[in-house]
Amino acid sequence: MLQAVRYLLGSPGGANGFGSKSTAEEVTPDLCSVTAIITGATSGIGAETARVLAKRGARVVIPARSVKAAEDMRARIRDECPGADVLVMPLDLSSLASVRAFADRFLDLGLPLHLLINNAGKFSHGQLALSEDGVEMTFATNYLGHFLLTKLLVGRMAETAAETGVQGRIVNVSSSVHGWFAGDWAEYLQLVTRRKIPYDATQAYAVSKLANVLHTKALAARLQEMGANVTANCVHPGIVRTRLNRDRDGLLTDLVFLLLSKLLKTIPQAAATTCYVAAHPRVAGVTGRYFADCNEALPSPAATSNHEAARLWQISEAIIHCTNTNKSTGLGLLFPPIVQEAGDDQT
Ligand SMILES: NC(=O)c1ccc[n+]([C@@H]2O[C@H](COP(=O)([O-])OP(=O)(O)OC[C@H]3O[C@@H](n4cnc5c(N)ncnc54)[C@H](OP(=O)(O)O)[C@@H]3O)[C@@H](O)[C@H]2O)c1
Q1: What does R_g of the chain's alpha carbons equal in angstroms?
Q2: What is the pLDDT of residues 23-33, one digit of tens each?
Q3: How far, in Å, CA of 182 to CA of 176, rounded?
Q4: Cβ(179) to ligand 1 under 6 A?
Q5: For the chain, what is the largest distance between any 2 Cα atoms, rounded to a whole number of angstroms?
Q6: Taking the C-alpha atoms of 39, 45, 49 and 50 in order, what is their torsion angle to the nearest 10 degrees?
Q7: What CA–CA distance (Å, rounded) separates 234 from 171?
Q8: What does the pLDDT read at residue 333?
Q9: Which residues does 147 contact at the CB level (< 8 Å), separation at least 6?
Q10: Where are the alpha helices (DSSP H) in the chain?
Q11: What is the dihedral of CA 31, 37, 40, 42, to 10 degrees?
Q12: SS3 state at 320
């Protein structure tokens, strides 16, 4: 109750002085000499994140399905910040081939990479769709494309951190909706892909957002094992009216948003947690955590399982391997069993 009142009043949520009403500009320090890739920066939360990072002096790379939309975004940033260093490059996250092509192009530029903000996302309108790699489209876009993108860029991030002494940071934009999925996410994807159960767009979205949190957990552990001076955290940005939910027609959706309107964030507020985790000195060295309202928060119990994080990693690697070697992504291979080790539990 106290938390809800705090949220509505926008009082600071923690010792850092930032809370639900903080804006991206308020939480973002100077970022000169920093290079950031921000996916989904043509609209909504990602666009505001890119604008604020560029305003603070970062070189911003905007990968986008629509190069025209990304060029428009670059023009908007430069209107406000003349001379801002903004690069536009094609990327469709639902296609693993497109992710590989983007990573090759970016790495060929020889630029450093300090920040990777995996923000792009979609919420399906209802019908089951499969990506060109045969993967459920929401999972492919919101999670799998970002998994591969991160895998391909993490070496450059580690090199940059070692050369510059500036810690690299990866931010996965998840959602509190990750806690709405209860059950076996791999089985759900397998059954839905085989059309054995009806497709439910909200469940598919929740699975993809759960995957964002599990990915963060496994990635943070691997970065530590590698000895890379790079952190990985994930965020719930808050609820905000963007294209993600604005395009979802219907009286029910409109009613829910009307009722929740007092709790909704503005877009500058919704971009704040991403910017805080990506850039604020207080988050230096913090890794594998979940943030909301610019403060650390607790993810759902399902999102804290080491076993599920390892299983997701293994399945993701298997899919990527299949698509890279032109092998059929047969579902048996997509979802192989994983042996649970004794003593492995939730942490
Ligand atoms: N809005 C909320 O209330 C809310 C709440 C919790 C979490 N989130 C999360 O916040 C993130 C940003 O969402 P938003 O609300 O800002 O949504 P948005 O305004 O719809 O923006 C989504 C962005 O993702 C891009 N995108 C979608 N599919 C893509 C693909 N296949 N390849 C490359 N880019 C793609 C879009 O590019 P195009 O221009 O090409 O479509 C757009 O730039 C998402 O991860 C979402 O799940 C949002």
Answers
A1: 19
A2: 999 999 999 99
A3: 13
A4: no
A5: 58
A6: 50
A7: 5
A8: 43
A9: 215, 316, 320
A10: 2-9, 24-27, 44-55, 67-80, 96-108, 137-139, 145-164, 185-193, 201-226, 243-246, 251-259, 267-270, 272-279, 306-324, 331-334
A11: 60
A12: helix
pLDDT confidence bin for 245, thresholds 50/70/90? confident
Q: Are the C-beta atoms of 277 and 169 separated by less than 8 Å?
A: yes
Q: Decide: 131 and 189 in contact? Cβ < 8 Å.
A: no
Give the span between the Cα atoms of 41 and 63, in whole angstroms: 8
- Cβ(335)–Cβ(341) below 8 Å: no
Would you say the CB of residue 140 lies under 6 angstroms from ligand 1? no
Whether the CB of 314 sits within 6 Å of ligand 1: no
Q: Residues 146-201: pLDDT tens digits?
A: 999 999 999 999 999 999 999 999 999 999 999 999 999 999 999 999 999 999 99
Can 199 be counted among the known catalytic residues?
Answer: yes
CA of 30 to the centre of ligand 1 (A): 26
Could you tell me the two tokens for 259?
Answer: 């009722």
Q: Give the atom of ligand 1 at the shortest distance from the alpha carbon of 176.
A: 6
Q: Which amino acid is at 5?
A: V
Catalytic-role residue among 143, 199, 205, 276: 199
Q: How far apart are CA 343 and CA 346, in angstroms?
A: 10
- What is the pLDDT confidence band of residue 342, given thresholds at 50, 70 and 90? very low
Cα–Cα distance for residue pair 230/158, rounded to 1 Å? 6
Please tell me the pTM assigned to this model.
0.92
Q: Give me the sign of the Cα torsion angle 155, 156, 162, 163.
A: positive
Structure tokens at 304: 């804290």
| pLDDT for the residue 301 | 96
Joined tokens for residue 17: 């002085």
